[in-house]
Structures are given as structure tokens and as C-alpha cells.
Design brief:
By secondary structure, this protein is an all-alpha fold. It contains two helices and no strands. It has one domain.
Length: 139
């Protein structure tokens, strides 16, 4: 319910109660009764109006309390759901990061082994070239 609808509902209820009270008083004033009987009727109708208003206010407070409790419960559920989703997301992110670290470590290790083999091969070629050069230089 929007604030505008709440305001209209309150205004309507106040109007209904005020109209009932005014109508009752006017009816009593125009009824052919003695002053004492008229005052008793006005007092009775006023008390009825006050009782009805108290019931309305009590009912409104109860409904507001229920609404507040419902909103609290829903917000707690939303917070719990959000926490679970964030935890699942963080777990998945950690798994992806761990997997990436493992793959990177494997790639680095493989690259290091290949580089060492190429380095050894290159050293052998250079050494063979030096030996060949020395041999040719002596001859």
C-alpha cells in the first residue's frame, strides 16, 4: 500500500466516524424528547462513538504491528539469501582462482623444462661450434 492510499483510507475512516457521530447527534436533537432523555442519548451515542473509535485504533495498531513483523521477516530472509549467494559466489571465485593458479604453475613448470632443454641444446651447439672453430684454426 502506498502512503497516498494509507492517507485516503485514514481520511475515509475518519469521515465515516465523524459522519456517524454528527448524524447521530442531529437525529437526537430533532427527536421529540425531554432534555434529560436527550442528554442521556447524546452521552450514550458519544460513548458508542468513542468505543468504535477505540476499536478502530486498536485494530489499526494490530495490523501495523503485523505488517512490521512481516516486513522484518521478509527482510531477514532477503539478507540470509543474499549472504548465501555471496558466499557461493566467493567460493566459486576462490575455486576459479585456485584453478588458474594451478594451471599457471603447470604452464610455468612446463615452460621452464622446455627452456632448460633448449638451453642445454643451445649450449651443446655452441660448445660444438667452439670445438669445431678451434679444430679448424689449428689446421
Amino acid at each position: 500500500m502506498t502512503n497516498e492510499e494509507n492517507g485516503m483510507g485514514k481520511g475515509l475512516m475518519i469521515g465515516v466516524f465523524a459522519g456517524a457521530a454528527i448524524g447521530s447527534i442531529i437525529a437526537l436533537l430533532y427527536a421529540p424528547k425531554s432534555g434529560k432523555k436527550l442528554r442521556e442519548d447524546i452521552k450514550t451515542k458519544s460513548q458508542d462513538f468513542i468505543d468504535d473509535t477505540d476499536k478502530y485504533i486498536s485494530n489499526a495498531k494490530e495490523k501495523a504491528s503485523q505488517l512490521i513483523d512481516d516486513v522484518k521477516k521478509k527482510s531477514e530472509l532477503l539478507v540470509t539469501d543474499a549472504k548465501e549467494k555471496v558466499n557461493a559466489f566467493l567460493y566459486e571465485a576462490e575455486m576459479i582462482l585456485s584453478d588458474a593458479k594451478d594451471k599457471t604453475g603447470n604452464y610455468l613448470q612446463t615452460g621452464k623444462v622446455k627452456l632448460e632443454k633448449k638451453n642445454e641444446s643451445l649450449k651443446s651447439v655452441i660448445k660444438a661450434g667452439k670445438n669445431d672453430y678451434k679444430t679448424k684454426k689449428k689446421s
